[in-house]
């Protein structure tokens, strides 16, 4: 779920509403990955028609939302990879894909569990473990995207929320 989706939720609207109310062609995508400053004027105009605001207000609200850094919500593997690429500090995985992410995140140990081992081996265990992990992935028959998700998820801490969503946050934020 991108910035446009978060903005539209504020007005109880969806992307489909934007397409229908603004006569936007279905072939023109509302890109999830763009920053607010780079939105095309046609998209801003379509959003303004849908939420009944002027284009300047829509653009300012999008920029304010972007600065707030609300958690990036994802429903698919592609959206999760996009969030990893953007180095989002907080990611909420929703829907059926949350179960898969939970199992992938559950395989990594917490920092408290690994700290003593890493300090005792002076970091060699971490280095050796990563080499072995990369060799295993090299000969793995799993999809490349799945391996990429599993690799990137190591830098995030996973928390299972009450509504069965998974919150991922950067481990660096713990320090």
What is the secondary structure topology, with strand pairs?
Blueprint: H1 3-10, H2 15-21, H3 41-51, H4 55-68, E1 72-74, H5 77-85, E2 90-93, H6 97-106, H7 111-120, H8 124-138, H9 144-152, E3 156-160, E4 166-170
Parallel strand pairs: 1-2
Antiparallel strand pairs: 2-4, 3-4
Helix pairs in contact: 1-4, 2-3, 3-4, 5-9
Structure description:
This protein is an alpha+beta fold and 175 residues long. The chain folds into two domains: 66 residues; 103 residues, no CATH class. 53% of the residues lie in helices and 10% in strands. It contains nine helices and four strands. It has a four-stranded mixed beta sheet, covered by helices on one side. A hairpin with a 5-residue loop joins strand 3 and strand 4. Helix 1 packs across helix 4 and helix 3 packs across helix 4. It is elongated, with a radius of gyration of 20 Å. The mean pLDDT is 76.
The amount of helix comes to 40-55%
Distance between the termini: 28 Å
Order of helices and strands: HHHHEHEHHHHEE
Silhouette? elongated
Strand order of the largest sheet: 1-2-4-3
Total beta strands: 4
> Which radius of gyration do the C-alpha atoms yield?
20 Å
Strand content: 5-15%
Query: Number of helical segments?
Result: 9
Can you tell me the residue ranges where pLDDT is under 50 for at least 5 consecutive residues?
none
What is the mean pLDDT? Answer: 76
Query: Main sheet?
Result: 4 strands, mixed
Number of domains: 2
């Amino acid at each position: 779920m991108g910035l446009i989706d978060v903005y539209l939720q504020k007005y109880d609207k969806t992307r489909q509403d934007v397409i229908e109310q603004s006569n936007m062609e279905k072939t023109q995508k509302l890109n999830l990955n763009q920053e607010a400053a780079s939105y095309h004027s046609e998209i801003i105009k379509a959003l303004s028609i849908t939420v009944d605001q002027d284009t300047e207000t829509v653009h300012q609200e999008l920029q304010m939302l972007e600065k707030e850094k609300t958690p990036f919500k994802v429903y698919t593997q592609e959206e999760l990879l996009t969030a990893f690429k953007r180095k989002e500090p907080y990611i909420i995985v929703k829907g059926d894909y949350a179960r898969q992410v939970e199992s992938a995140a559950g395989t990594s140990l917490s920092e408290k569990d690994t700290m003593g081992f890493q300090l005792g081996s002076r970091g060699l265990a971490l280095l050796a473990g990563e080499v072995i992990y990369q060799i295993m992935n090299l000969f793995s028959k799993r999809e490349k995207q799945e391996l990429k998700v599993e690799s990137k998820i190591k830098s995030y801490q996973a928390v299972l929320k009450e509504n069965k969503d998974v919150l991922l946050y950067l481990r660096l934020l713990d320090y």
